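Standup notes, structure subgroup. Blocker cleared on the flavin mononucleotide input:
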Amino acid sequence: MAEAIARGIESADPDVKIKLYNAAHADKNDIISEVFKSKAILVGSPTINGGILHSIAGLLEMMRGLKFRNKKAAAFGSYGWSGESVRQIHDALVKGGFSVVTEGIRTNWVPDEDALAACETFGSEFVDTIK
Ligand SMILES: Cc1cc2nc3c(=O)[nH]c(=O)nc-3n(C[C@H](O)[C@H](O)[C@H](O)COP(=O)(O)O)c2cc1C
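Run returned:
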């Protein structure tokens, strides 16, 4: 999903510099320092046991404490049956001080071609909201 959203952003505005991180593998402090430098962020997770990945939860908790200002954000995530992750990320971003500009996007299980196309559209629309 992240890669498809990034493609959508790039196609809408090739001048936007996009950085993609896998929170499970990247250094948390590297991600947070990029958040400081960014105008907008997108945060995603599958729904796992009615919640979100612990790596994403940890990052969101760091962001809550840092209380960002004047930054836009949105959530995305995949799910199997209940799909709470996008709402939970959305609420955590609000607590972190972000202006959350859309309801976010969810895809069911592993995204198929149509779902990936929807992610690309989501990315291009996101660019418009951060201008
Ligand atoms: C351990 C585990 C728990 C899960 N719990 C939920 C859940 O509570 N609600 C839900 O909608 N999907 C749940 N799922 C389904 C995942 O959201 C689904 O596998 C995911 O969207 C696919 O992403 P992935 O390819 O990264 O696993 C669960 C999956 C796993 C493996």
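Discussed briefly. The pocket of flavin mononucleotide is lined by residues 46-50, 78-83, 109-110 (CB under 6 Å).
Next: hand off to the docking folks.
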